[in-house]
Recover the amino acids of this structure.
């Protein structure tokens, strides 16, 4: 290890310990690059289990080039729909928006009505251990 690198690491450690560096925390990361992503790849969507939806594949960015991230099934959220990952062009840069759940304004919750319990004869007619014949 050379002396310059060791000194730089030492100064960085001391600065962080002293609190002179303020590092902001971001809730969402935005990626913008000047290279357009290739056309989406065709993927065969497999059979999906009930309660899951398909999140299609997309082009990710490694810092040097685009790489294809395969689609996957994800657990469905009631009242929401999956908005897939996408790249948008603004001026001369491309910005990636990560896939996310959006509230589905067309969603209608169907409530299952509980059937009323039928009144009437039960299986043993109140006589325990005497079978389930009905005496008329």
């Amino acid at each position: 290890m050379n002396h310059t690198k060791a000194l730089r690491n030492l100064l960085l450690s001391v600065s962080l310990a002293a609190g002179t560096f303020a590092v902001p925390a971001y809730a969402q990361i935005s990626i913008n690059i000047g290279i357009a992503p290739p056309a989406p790849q065709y993927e065969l969507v497999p059979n999906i289990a009930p309660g899951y939806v398909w999140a299609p594949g997309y082009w990710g960015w490694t810092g040097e080039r685009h790489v294809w991230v395969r689609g996957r099934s994800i657990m469905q959220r009631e009242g929401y729909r999956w908005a897939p990952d996408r790249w948008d062009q603004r001026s001369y840069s491309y910005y990636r928006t990560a896939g996310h759940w959006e509230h589905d304004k067309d969603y209608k919750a169907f409530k299952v009505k509980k059937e009323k319990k039928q009144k009437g004869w039960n299986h043993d007619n109140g006589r325990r251990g005497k079978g389930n014949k009905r005496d008329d």
